[in-house]
Write a structure and sequence with these properties.
The chain has 444 residues and is of the alpha/beta class. It contains ten helices and 26 strands. The protein has helices at residues 10-22, 43-48, 63-68, 132-143, 155-165, 187-199, 295-307, 339-342, 394-403, 408-412, and strands spanning 2-6, 27-32, 71-75, 78-83, 88-93, 96-101, 104-107, 111-113, 126-127, 147-151, 170-175, 203-206, 212-215, 221-225, 228-232, 234-237, 241-243, 273-275, 282-283, 289-290, 323-327, 330-336, 349-357, 366-374, 380-387, 437-438.
Length: 444
């Protein structure tokens, strides 16, 4: 059996390794458009944060490791088209057109940063750094810049603002929504972070939409938003990524947002063709189909597709959009449904917000938690955390609780270890109302 995988980032690599596990005799071929293998998309953040000394270190697998698994790969291979009738892929490699036949095909081509609504966003002077080459260019440009404008207040944009502020850069951050990180946290939870951003000198432009980016004669960039504008030395695009699939066979059905339509086994509309990662929509926190381009989703979809190559045996369980990061002195984490998005669902929800000590010791660090749950059944639907202490791993416990449909009463009965140096008499994720101070009563 010959398995061809288009794309060698997280989804494609995970699929290749899992195919090898299930099919030891399979011929596995990876086609990767980039000239570099397995670059971590936020590698530039790791470099700015002094966690790596060179961008080349931002890799999650090596070529040698692929060879050890007998996985054939071609870097700099640009797929031109797929003929699903003949099961043949045409691609450019070393300035030659090549053809490769397949028995099974997994499309893991990833995504790119696009904004069709912002004129001038495609020009090279507007920085994107999802790819290695882009990151190299961005590193050089930002180093020589004093004022950087960041468009987009999601996780990538806010992390970049934090890291560049530490380099004494002047930062303007523009977000079209009323608060940053709106996909993951509610406004009441994000207020301490936004206040800290302002205290650190961030020019925070919320609820404003960028219309165009213009290059000036002095090589500065003007970002236009409504009747206002911002002039800076560099502009970073951290808006949502989108699939980039110009090679796709028209027989493979797509959604209106150009993602590939798949079933729960990640099969496309064409037999023997699968799609994973940033190419597809996923069932979200409320079982609706949404676009959630996160690395953990990419890896899990790659694993599921590989398990279903011969017959459908493993359904993809969906995504809770779980995230965790450290920015501006706060650790923040989120999983599942937010209170804001519950307004667009059929759920009647209730929320509970409390500040809880992390240990039993005097002067313990605390964490503010927000619980979002079904008002009738008490099934947990979402959770958010913010703290000055590193409590990020706790969000994984709550993600599992949501995935297994646990109630608040179930959470109170979950069995955890106790040690006064590391935990409370009831662990943070047990949700016992008397364990900490309730803070949602203070909301206006």
């Amino acid at each position: 059996m010959k398995v061809v995988i288009i794309g060698a980032s997280f989804a494609g690599i995970a699929a290749a390794l899992e195919v090898r596990k299930h099919h030891t005799d399979a011929n596995i071929v990876l086609l990767e458009k980039q000239a570099t293998l397995a670059y971590i998309p936020n590698g530039l953040h790791l470099y700015w944060g002094n966690q790596i000394d060179d961008l080349n270190a931002a890799r999650f697998i090596t070529e040698e490791q692929l060879r050890q698994h007998t996985i054939e790969y071609y870097l700099g291979a640009t797929v031109q088209n797929i003929n699903t009738d003949q099961k043949i892929i045409a691609y450019d490699y070393l300035e030659q057109e090549e053809l490769v036949a397949y028995d099974k095909l997994i499309i893991a081509a990833g995504s790119r940063q696009l904004s069709e609504k912002i004129d001038g966003s495609a020009q090279d002077s507007v920085l994107k750094y999802k790819r290695y080459g882009e990151a190299q260019a961005a590193l050089s440009k930002v180093k020589e810049s004093q004022h950087v404008t960041i468009i987009g207040g999601g996780q990538v944009g806010v992390e970049a603002a934090d890291l560049l502020t530490k380099q004494q850069k002047k930062i303007t951050l523009i977000e079209s929504m009323d608060y940053v990180l709106f996909k993951y946290l509610d406004e009441d939870m994000i207020q301490p972070l936004e206040q800290k951003m302002i205290e650190n000198g961030i020019d925070l432009r919320l609820g404003q939409t960028v219309s165009s980016i213009d290059m000036e004669s002095n090589h500065n960039l003007t970002v236009r938003l409504g009747d206002d504008s911002v002039i800076s030395d560099a502009v970073i695009m951290s808006v949502n990524v989108r699939p980039n699939l110009p090679f796709l066979d028209t027989r493979i059905k797509r959604h209106t947002d150009q993602t590939i339509a798949v079933d729960r086994y990640l099969r496309t509309s064409v037999e023997d063709v699968f799609a994973v990662g940033d190419c597809i929509q996923l069932s979200g926190p409320d079982e609706d189909m949404v676009y959630i381009p996160l690395i953990n989703n990419a890896v899990r979809t790659g694993i599921v597709a590989a398990a279903n190559l011969i017959e459908p045996v493993l359904e993809f369980k969906g995504s809770l959009r779980t995230i965790g990061t450290s920015i501006f002195g706060y650790y923040i984490a989120s999983t599942g449904m937010t209170e804001a998005e519950s307004l667009f669902t059929n759920h009647t929800i209730e929320t509970y917000r409390q500040e809880v000590p992390l240990t039993s010791l005097p002067h313990s660090d605390t964490v503010i938690l927000k619980w979002v749950y079904d008002a009738t059944t008490h099934v947990l639907l979402g959770a958010q955390m913010i703290s000055k202490a590193n409590m990020l791993e706790k969000i994984n416990t709550l993600a599992l609780a949501i995935q297994t449909k646990q109630t608040l009463e179930d959470l109170q009965q979950t069995d955890y270890f106790f040690h006064p140096s590391y935990s409370q008499m009831m662990t943070t994720t047990n949700l016992v109302s008397w364990m900490g101070e309730r803070v949602d009563k203070d909301e206006s």
